[in-house]
Amino acid sequence: MEEMNDVELEQSIEMLCRSKAEELRLVGYEYVTSKDVWNCISHKYEKQGIPPLHQLVNDILSLKATSFMNFMTVSAYRGSSF
Question: Are 50 and 57 in contact (CB under 8 A)?
């Protein structure tokens, strides 16, 4: 199997985030974007850095609406400095 270059990897992560955003919209969160999903996932790694790819993919795929809404609520409360 060929290794992905950085651009392909970034596009794949974007597709995963977009897919998760669509899933969240289907359960009632109408205005969710792929960037919201990425911010929710990446926030978890601010202090330790981005994890191995398999962990990142698992985190995106396993993101639940409740976890997402908790993150968005805290983000809105803390403002843009979050």
Answer: no
DSSP state of 2: P
Residue written as token pair 């409740």? 66
- Is the CB of residue 40 less than 8 Å from the CB of residue 71? yes
Provide the residue ranges of all domains of the chain, joining segments of one domain with +: 6-78
Residue 63: Cβ-neighbour burial (10 angstroms; 0-12, 13-18, 19+) = buried
Give 6-27 pLDDT, tens digit per residue: 788 889 999 999 999 999 999 8
Structure tokens at 9: 């990897």
Max CA distance (Å), the chain: 45
Query: Is the distance from CB of 33 to CB of 45 less than 8 angstroms?
Result: no
